[in-house]
Design a protein that fits this description.
- The protein is α/β, with parallel strands linked by helices.
- The chain has a single domain, classed as P-loop containing nucleotide triphosphate hydrolases (Rossmann fold, 3-Layer(aba) Sandwich), CATH 3.40.50.300.
- It has 17 helices and eight strands.
- An eight-stranded mixed beta sheet has the order 3-4-2-5-1-6-7-8, with helices on both faces.
- Helix 4 packs across helix 7, helix 7 crosses helix 8 and helix 14 runs parallel beside helix 16.
- It is elongated.
Length: 358
């Protein structure tokens, strides 16, 4: 069994890498290939650009599974993350009562911040993965992550949000009036009080009350958040999980991929290997000049110059792949040749998947 076939037997595959390397297309193609290997498969995007629907030829995606019919016998599901909806679902699961859940969801600060609270998007992505895997609906779940700088946030999110919710700063917000009583300077208390009143007039919110209500509602759920974060952290490092570094042979992309591989392995995340897209594989001829004798100058000269340039680019790509292997030790799962047709339809995606997994 080849390395790429072994990859398709994993329960969770995360495609990571910098922007513009074809992660979205690769993730969709891996889900298609898994389905072709008789696996119940799905692909989910947490990339805010939402390019997955274009690769699948769909009008839109949502948090609910959308069945992608490849042909009469072949299909897989596609989903996109809805942060607000996932956050609401999590509140309903961990709140001690339906009344507490309703109180949090109706809080004006929650309604404003649930989409943008630091770390919430990444945490909700991990929560959605946890939900899908524990539903045992899919045998293979492929994740299209944001570019690498944001993927680091994605992997750190399970513990970061729970640390925030349990921090002393958040505890202070639960009783925000102590901000005023804890300030020793009379001038400082007056300034802070004036600022809070101005904010209340500007936002239309009863700021102190809403802060207290918002944070207080989470107090009973911190234990549930922490337990879930630990489960997700273990899930990301499980033997059934595989990280795939998606890259191109461009020099700066190769160096970014090497650095990201170093971070993943240091964090204990299982890296299955590397998929290189847009690799130029150009044939080598013993006597290229003999191939263009039928053409007259100056066309013959231009053809030979083009051949020399393409050969050099091909050598550059091979050197880049050797550099990747030497620096990471990770196997090259696939080298997908450079093509001119962008996979923006199912037919094009099938062609890409065939190049990825013959």
């Amino acid at each position: 069994m080849g390395a790429i076939d072994s990859l398709l037997r994993k329960r969770l595959i995360l495609c990571v890498g910098c922007g513009g390397v074809g992660k979205t297309t690769t993730a969709a193609a891996l889900a298609l290939a898994a389905a072709r290997h008789a696996r119940r498969a799905a692909v989910i995007t947490v990339d805010p650009a939402r390019r997955l629907k274009d690769a699948l030829g769909l009008d839109g995606l949502s948090t609910e599974p959308h069945r992608v019919e490849v042909d009469e016998t072949l299909h897989f599901d596609a989903l996109a993350l809805d942060i607000k909806r996932t956050f609401d679902s999590l509140i309903e699961r961990f709140a001690p009562s339906a009344e507490v859940a309703q109180r949090i969801q109706s809080n004006r600060l929650y309604q404003e911040l649930s989409d943008g609270l630091a770390g919430s998007a990444e945490y909700m992505a991990m929560e959605k993965l946890h939900e899908l895997l524990h539903a045992h609906r899919y045998q293979t779940l492929v994740v299209d992550t944001p570019p690498s700088v944001h993927a680091r946030d994605l992997l750190a999110a399970p513990n970061r949000l729970t640390t925030l919710l349990g921090s002393r700063a958040v505890s202070l917000l639960q009783a925000p009036s102590t901000l005023l009583s804890g300030t020793t300077s009379r001038v400082a208390r007056l300034g802070l009080s004036t600022l809070l009143k101005a904010l209340e007039r500007w936002t239309g919110l009863e700021l102190l009350h809403d802060l207290s209500d918002f944070v207080g509602g989470f107090e009973a759920m911190i234990g549930g958040f922490s337990k879930r974060a630990d489960e997700i952290s273990a899930l990301l490092r499980a033997p059934a999980t595989a990280f795939v570094l998606v890259t191109t042979p461009e020099p700066h992309t190769v160096e970014t991929t090497i650095a990201f591989h170093r971070e993943l392995t240091a964090g204990g995340f299982p890296v299955a290997g590397i998929i290189a897209n847009r690799v130029l594989a150009f044939p080598r001829f013993d006597d290229p000049a003999a191939l263009v004798t039928a053409w007259e100058e100056p066309l013959r000269h231009k053809l030979l110059l083009n051949y020399a340039e393409l050969r050099e680019l091909s050598r550059r790509d091979r050197r880049a792949l050797r550099r990747l292997h030497d620096a990471t030790g990770a196997p090259l799962l696939a080298a997908v040749p450079a093509v001119t047709d962008a996979p923006t339809s199912l037919a094009a995606l099938q062609r890409f998947a065939h190049r990825l997994v013959p």
